[in-house]
Amino acid sequence: MPALHVPADRASLDFDVIIVGCGPTGAMLAAELRLHDVRVLVLEKDTEPASFVRIVGLHIRSLELMAMRGLLDRILPHGRRRPAAGFFAAIAKPEPKGLDSAYAYLLGIPQPVIVNLLEEHAIALGAQVRRGCAVAGVEQDDEGVTTTLADGERLRSRYLVGCDGARSTVRKLLGVGFPGEPARTETLMGEMEVGAPPEEVAAKVAEVSETRRPFWLRPFGNGVYSVVVPAAGISDRAEPPTIEDFQQQLRAIAGTDFGVHSPRWLSRFGDATRLAERYRVGRVLLAGDAAHIHPPIGGQGLNLGVQDAVNLGWKLAAQVRGWAPETLLDTYQAERHPVAEDVLDNTRAQVELLSPEPGPQAVRRLLTELMDLDEVNRHLIEKITGIGIRYDFGTGSDLLGRRLRDIAVKQGNLYGLLHGGRGLLLDRTERLTLDGWSDRVDHLADPTAELDVPGVLLRPDGHVAWVGEDQRDLDEHLSRWFGEPAH
Ligand SMILES: Cc1cc2nc3c(=O)[nH]c(=O)nc-3n(C[C@H](O)[C@H](O)[C@H](O)COP(=O)(O)OP(=O)(O)OC[C@H]3O[C@@H](n4cnc5c(N)ncnc54)[C@H](O)[C@@H]3O)c2cc1C
Q1: Ligand 1 centre distance from Cα of residue 140 (Å)
Q2: How confident is the model at residue 52 (pLDDT cuts 50, 70, 90)?
Q3: Going by CA atoms, what residue is nearest to atom 26 of ligand 1?
């Protein structure tokens, strides 16, 4: 059947925002935009959601975001909780005590479950998702963006966001540079059943991983393990790895193949590390793997993309709805580019620490010792889990720019008040007012709130935009983040 041709000159813009790619980043962004009644279309080239199951780790900040949007209870039954520890270069150390979060664990969960859930959530909120639509062209002008699909169909929107993964077509069409390092080493990773008894596997893994890395077999339950071995010696990069490749590598490294069989999925990945030079060119933005790639050590890629989406969603919605302060949309790159830079750096460091060379092994031993110091262990865990992030909002209270953990408030818990993606003034003085901003920001006067400051203004992404008790100062900060008052 010939494709329906929608001429670009059809004056009205069909959508406010077109999102390219329905992975975790695109689906989360669509849902965030729908909270603000933005007309959203998601274009996804694959006709069906991914069927292979890759278990990913949702880290603390992402779990908090899910709780902030009322999604966590739907996600938890599909995952497996593990302690928030042992991710940094797979150095086995216990979780630091008293991590500052109500959700201080790692949730191991199949990536397709997260993607399906976020897609369902976005659709339930009113987003349109069209599968089997590969974007081939993107052009922008003063009024909007024209998107051309592979079959020639054209669509118009006011903005477009490329959430189309590491090989992003949108990024290439924009001509945005993607500097960094190409892959130096390759690793095999997969999930499969293991025939050997669990105690035997655990003992052998503990012994071998002292000297050989990357190497692990981690149980996911029901005899299924995540297996990681170096790809060195396994030929033909172009061909997907086989279970025989894993058996061969395991025998070479551990002297046994642990009876691995029945793979769920097998993959090969490199340690290429790249970061987009810009996250925005006019009306077109980039988020998730389209903007940054790095090795999966530490399990941060999906988390980073979902967090990009929550940072961008309300800002782009404000732009579309017409109340965004002039520079608000540019704070997306200003805040998220340095966060990605930091993740790229920590993965570079982790890759070095996994090298079997004597130098990196010595650094690893030293760091392993240092991680016995609670402060060092805590710093690394807070970095990887995203709860240590502090955006630069200027000088002031130590809370400024950080996310606030889920605290008890008189209605129950703080995150329960953030489901709608609006700003929130937490007011222990009970005399602050919102006046012209009450259409964008909620007000909770609660002297009982578990806070040791008089008032806090939270952005829709849960980051602290203001701390204090002075009304005039608050009004200035409301203008900075939420635009002009309504009257
Ligand atoms: C082995 C491995 C293990 C990992 N483990 C973890 C982990 O434990 N924790 C973690 O946080 N991350 C992990 N990651 C990383 C994580 O999988 C990615 O960071 C995540 O999928 C990125 O999400 P995204 O939505 O930005 O991009 P993607 O998931 O790549 O989604 C992009 C979507 O865009 C679509 N698309 C592409 N081009 C077009 C086009 N032209 N038109 C329309 N649609 C298009 C694609 O079909 C796809 O659906 C791992 C990665 C690997 C390889």
Answers
A1: 26
A2: low
A3: 288
Rounded to the nearest angstrom, the distance between the alpha carbon of 58 and the centre of ligand 1 is 14
Question: Is 190 close to ligand 1, i.e. is its CB under 6 Å away?
Answer: no
Q: In angstroms, what is the span from residue 227 Cα to ligand 1's centroid?
A: 20
Atom of ligand 1 nearest to the CA of 50: 49
Atom 31, ligand 1: residue with shortest CA distance? 23
Distance 22 CA to ligand 1 centre (A): 9
300 lines ligand 1 (CB under 6 A): yes
Tokens of 131: 């599968």
Sheet holding 273-275, edge to edge: 180-181, 273-275, 292-293
* Average pLDDT rounded to a whole number, residues 47-66: 88
Give the number of other Cβ atoms within 10 Å of residue 235's Cβ: 8
Mean pLDDT over the full length of the chain = 93
Q: What's the burial of 1, exposed, middle or buried (CB within 10 Å: 0-12/13-18/19+)?
A: exposed
Q: Inform me whether the pLDDT recorded for 50 exceeds 80.
A: no
Crossing angle of helices 111-124 and 24-34, in 10° steps, is 20
- How many CB atoms are closer than 10 A to CB 10? 11
Q: Whose structure tokens read 């993107």? A: 138
Integer Rg of the chain from CA: 24
- Rounded-to-integer distance, Cα 226 and Cα 218, Å: 5
Report pLDDT digits (tens) over 382-436. 999 999 999 999 999 999 999 999 999 988 999 999 999 999 999 999 999 998 9
